[in-house]
Amino acid sequence: MSKIKENLDKIEQKVDFCCQKASRNRKDVNLVVVTKTATVEQIKEVYELGYRNFGENRLPHLKEVSTAMADFAPENDPIVWDMIGHMQRNKVKQFLPLVSRIHSIDSLRIISEIVKVADSLGRGFDCFLQVNCSGEQQKYGIEPRQAADLADEITTNFPQICLVGLMTMAPFTLDTHEITKTFRLAAKLFDDIKTSACCGNHFSRLSMGMTNDYEIAIAEGATDIRIGSAVFE
Ligand SMILES: *Cc1c(COP(=O)(O)O)cnc(C)c1O
């Protein structure tokens, strides 16, 4: 068995186990395979194993692999590419034609740039509002106490942006208690906004959890886990 298949089997087993433990349906947890360190050959292998949702955060690599994969994947079974990382405003125009979903909107400045480009492309984008739930200075994302207002504002003013939920990153620590606290805060914010119904039925997703912490993220309600190293290492 190839290393990648072995890795994905292991991840699937763990995801199954975590879903069972949390009394969640496996279908409610989407695996975004993060390809930022992967070669085109490796990505083809992941595609052939049945995965269709990939994540990237750097433009040159996204361009290279999405172009190659567009030739590889049949038109009726395409890949959904997600922008998972911080986007500079001056790169939005180049990123957007290549992706369907954006996990990292966190300011009106970046939103207005996305709206401008979306208008010129004549299409909309599924977006997650990135919230800094760990409180670390160096993390991107808006403050938790501003999340509900910004979510409301996006939904009211920008039809080009379909706000599908929240995204957060765990703190840079091995302390599982700290990680749990961060994810729990994101889940609480997510539930509050969902319950307030300001953002409609589309607001249904919670993007959190990476190689080192996806098990905790599933326990806390993640619907989209973003995993790179555990697949390609
Ligand atoms: C790189 C990255 C991931 C994947 O991280 P791994 O630890 O390799 O699984 C997920 N989300 C974001 C925003 C990233 O930049």
Strand percentage lies at 15-25%
If you average the pLDDT, what whole number results? 97
Q: Could you tell me how far the N terminus lies from the C terminus, measured between alpha carbons in angstroms?
A: 15 Å
Number of strands: 8
Q: What's the arrangement of strands in the largest beta sheet?
A: 7-6-5-4-3-2-1-8
Which outline best applies?
globular
Helix content: 40-55%
Structural category is alpha/beta
Sheet with the most strands, sense and barrel status: 8 strands, parallel
Query: Which parts are unreliable, with pLDDT below 50 for 5 consecutive residues or more?
Result: none
Order of helices and strands: HEHEHEHEHEHEHEHEH
Ligand inventory reads: pyridoxal-5'-phosphate
Count of helix runs: 9
Radius of gyration: 17 Å
Briefly say what this structure is.
The chain is 45% helix and 16% strand.
Note down, in words, how this protein is organized.
Helix 6 packs parallel to helix 7 (about 175-195). About 40% of the residues are buried. The longest helix is centred in the C-terminal third of the chain and has 21 residues, at about 175-195. The protein has an 8-stranded parallel sheet with strand order 7-6-5-4-3-2-1-8. It is globular, with a radius of gyration of 17 Å. The protein contains 9 helices and 8 strands. With about 230 residues, it is an alpha/beta fold. Helix content is about 45%, strand content about 15%. The protein has helices at about 5-20, 40-50, 60-70, 90-95, 110-120, 145-155, 175-195, 215-220, 230, and strands spanning about 30-35, 55, 80-85, 100-105, 125-130, 160-165, 205, 225. The structure holds pyridoxal-5'-phosphate (PLP). Pyridoxal-5'-phosphate (PLP) binds near residues 34, 36, 227 and 230.
